[in-house]
Design brief:
This protein is mainly beta. Helix content is about 10%, strand content about 30%. The chain has two helices and nine strands; from the N terminus they run ααβββββββββ. The strands form two sheets. The protein has a six-stranded antiparallel sheet, with no helix packed on it. The protein is globular. The two termini are about 20 Å apart.
Length: about 130
């Protein structure tokens, strides 16, 4: 990835919709089965709503039954970064865009083999570029 993108909160609010801002910048979450990409099946690339960085190739998407877009791996090793999230009395691993720090969702150890992980992502954190 290139260097980090830094913007003021006012700049983020001007760029993003209210829902995108709440999820991407305030680490919110959308309700399951409500996001525009949870049941989306076109070929292409899911990119960051904040900076346009490529995050997840559609080929890595699978139906996890959770109601959120789920992927077996990011588009590249350096596309996302992780950090510990201990909110709501749970221990989870948050994922965010490596370029602009937009919150994406969480990664869980219950995905399909061989990797065994599930990147569970909010649609509000994504844009889609069709191939």
């Amino acid at each position: 990835m290139t260097s980090k993108i830094r913007k003021t909160e006012a700049e983020w609010r001007a760029q993003l919709t209210a829902e995108e801002y709440q999820v991407a910048r305030e680490k919110g979450t959308e309700r399951p089965f409500t996001g525009k990409y949870w049941n989306h099946h076109e070929d292409g690339m899911y990119t960051c709503v904040g900076c346009g960085a490529p995050l997840f190739d559609a080929a890595s998407k699978f139906d996890s039954g959770t109601g959120w877009p789920s992927y077996v791996a990011p588009a590249s090793e350096d596309a996302v970064e992780t950090e510990s999230d201990r909110k709501f009395s749970m221990s989870r691993t948050e994922i965010h865009c490596a370029r602009c720090d937009s919150h994406l969702g969480h990664v869980f150890p219950d995905g399909p083999q061989p990797a065994g992980v599930r990147y569970c992502v909010n649609s509000a954190s994504l844009k889609f570029e069709k191939k």
